[in-house]
Amino acid sequence: MKMLVSDPLSEEGLKILTDSGIPVDVKPGLNEDELCAVIGEYDGLIIRSGTTVTKKVLDAGKKLKVVGRAGVGVDNVDVPHATEKGILVMNTPSANIISAAEHSLAMIMSLARMIPWAHASVHKGEWKRSKFTGIELYGKTLGIIGVGRVGGEIAKRAKSFNMAMIGYDPYLPKDVADDLGVKLTSLEDVLMNSDIMTIHTPLLPETKNMISMPQFKMMRKNALLVNVARGGIVNEDDLYEALKNKIIAGAAFDVFINEPLKEGCKLLELDNLVMTPHLGASTVEAQEKVSVDIAENVIAYLRDGVISNAVNAPRGQLDPTIAQYLPLAERLGICVHQLNGRIPVNNIEVICSGEIASKNTKMITLSALIGILRNIVGDSVNTINAESIAKGKNIKVTESKNEDSPVYSNTVTVKVTTEKGTRTVHGTVFAQTPRLVGIDNYCFEIPMDTDLLYARYRDKPGVIGSVGKILGENNINIGQMTVGRETAKGMAMMLMGVDHEVPAELIKKISDATGFDETKFIDLVQ
After folding, report:
1. Which of 222, 232, 495, 518 is the most buried (most CB within 10 A)?
2. Which run of H or of E encompasses 403?
């Protein structure tokens, strides 16, 4: 058994690896071909952001059992192919929580006391004290958008500044927020009533461009906005306009849509925007912790089979009949959550009907849960932590079985209940393809291999043509389509498989043109 470390790791992390007794080679800076040439002799691979683990690398890793990423993001690992190969992928999702929280507070302080601009002025030989009069945090209202692990750490520290704290997090239990001293409220209330706002949500379809011009216009003129979460949550074009035109007073950003920023980026023109180059996790302690954590976790898996912080699960250990229903269940979870929207989930029920009801369907339930939670907490959810995350958000999860499946030999149903009601989706697998066969009371059949445009409307002639025309005019191709209805001229439902994202403004245009009761883009192939 051997391990390869292909990116720099801390001395403490390397010591843990060598002390394990498992032979370790450190070979940083390998390109794809060089990595492919040597990876075949290793059981474990530890990387950071410098190494890209492609399909070619994974195929060359004939003995590879685990890829450990010292850090949170696994964008540089082909996780789906690793899963197909039965290779576990691990990361260290909690190692940088304190560093990210402290960097957020540093950005807040920099804005409040105008430190970057004062620093630059002094270095130019100036001494303009009155020009850099700041504000106190004492008595100000801090708005926390996403009161999760990082947001919670910020709340603990903001107490020492005697700040009032309000927060938006539709998935956080009220008692948890109360313990932190954060009053949970709506996003609109946070935007309108905060002096300073800090963002800590994952980048998801429902949080992309969550802060755009309409939201900036809700904010106070003296408001300050901080983002140390993910680029894309804030619309950068609208951020530029809001700061340029003094719609808000200032902002501090550590993350951007395209990194690094290129010369000519218009954000660089602004004199009321503090920018850092994605430093949220860049502390000695955080870098040390990710090295130590990944070293310990990879050793535990290789030596003892103990899995920690896995972002996937090896399918080779599953019943082949059950394994083919896992992608279906996860996509059903994604689908039902996006149909449900941002309404907090109270209950999730996963029902397995037909022949699979006689088997252990635990992994099907977990896969559906992952699909739902991925749009709530991001990619950190996996088979190991899905149930604990759901429990922490007061979501009750139940698993049911039914030996009868009248139409298909096997059916998986995912039912989500909120205070607004229940949404239900049904699916099956045939020809090795996950297929959506029902939403609520509507029956149909469509492959789940593309993103979907969903609409519910009063059945009448010409509706399908109108939608097709609008999509065509906006260069969005329809790959497939299905409809279902209750009765002729009654309520009906339409699903279109589309090749491109249907943006919110186009959704509104379609709804306005057709009078649809409900129209949603479902980002299914995430």
Report:
1. 495
2. none
